[in-house]
Hints:
By secondary structure, the chain is mostly helical. It has helices at 4-35, 59-73, 83-99, 104-122, 135-155, 162-180, 184-204, 213-233, 241-247, 249-265, 278-287, 290-310, 315-340, and strands spanning 39-40, 55-56. It contains 13 helices and 2 strands, in the order H-E-E-H-H-H-H-H-H-H-H-H-H-H-H. 45% of the residues are buried. The model has no long low-confidence stretch (mean pLDDT 91).
Amino acid sequence: MFKVYEIVYFSEMFFISLFIAFISSIFIIKYTQKSGLLLDKDSILKPQKMHYGDIPRAGGIGIMVSLCFIVLFGLKYWDVVLFVPIFLVFLSGILEDLHNSLSPKQRLALQILSAVSAIYFFNCVITDVGISMPYYVGVIFSIFCIVGIINAINIIDGFNGLSGGFSVLVLISIACVSYIVHNIDIFYMCIGLIGSIIGFLILNFPKGKIFLGDGGAYLLGFILAFLLILLTQDENSIVSPWYGVCIMIYPIFEVLFSIYRKKILRSMSAMEPDGIHFHMLIYKRITRSNYKTSILIWIFNVPFVFLPVLFFDNTIALIILSIVFICIYLFVYFKIIKFAGLKLTKN
């Protein structure tokens, strides 16, 4: 149990983080509308576009500013070198938001550097996936997983509050498990980040006055991957490595299924956007509402984010939960495709 002064400390940090992200986002909205920078313009047509008007895609800046406060406010928990990986991953997105000029290879290079720096400074390495892996194999696999989650959160960032709200659910789950296993470092980070994201969501959901942008989505993806690896891979940890897979199964499977759909079924580049992601089909065929789509997908994910808290050390139960999610996802996806009369192949 936390002592009174610890409860006050964490509460202060939560509300200050929320306030910083909220105020920063208000400033960003006003600045971008005046300057014309960092705007997702209505005139630009994209297959995944689901909004109207010129909206700032810079919500990640407010979260980044708040995250800097979280690290500095909690130096007894985290070292300032954490700024290195979070800055690199944020840079890979915000430059794209600002200039739309980074090539996929340049973004990927910055994300790999971010993952490598996290591994170097924090030994953020996956060596246990139910079976042990050699350390050097774990390093390569960790880079792959971190970069994958970074981009997975960006892929599901299609509607007001979808990525941000999902990230809050995941962070609450991680906070619960880190509290149970007495990992206060991770618990602290989760509480601060939940406050930061809520500060952003106040302006993002449901009206969409500001978007995460690539910078914000990449930043959240990195932090989630980083915290889950640290939580599950510590040599004294009793948390199953499948806990992280289970609570992140939605974005993970969205990426894997999208690659399969594009490369195998549609003969497209895996990097080429299309308009039939799961959340887009939910919007087009069920909700026909931006914010209601996010709410429905949040609800859909709740069992697979919070049931793992009960089974955080039970690998078999976590694998079963992950399989159940995949089965439901595919069932719903193909039902909608069939109902809409759509074809997954190009020809």
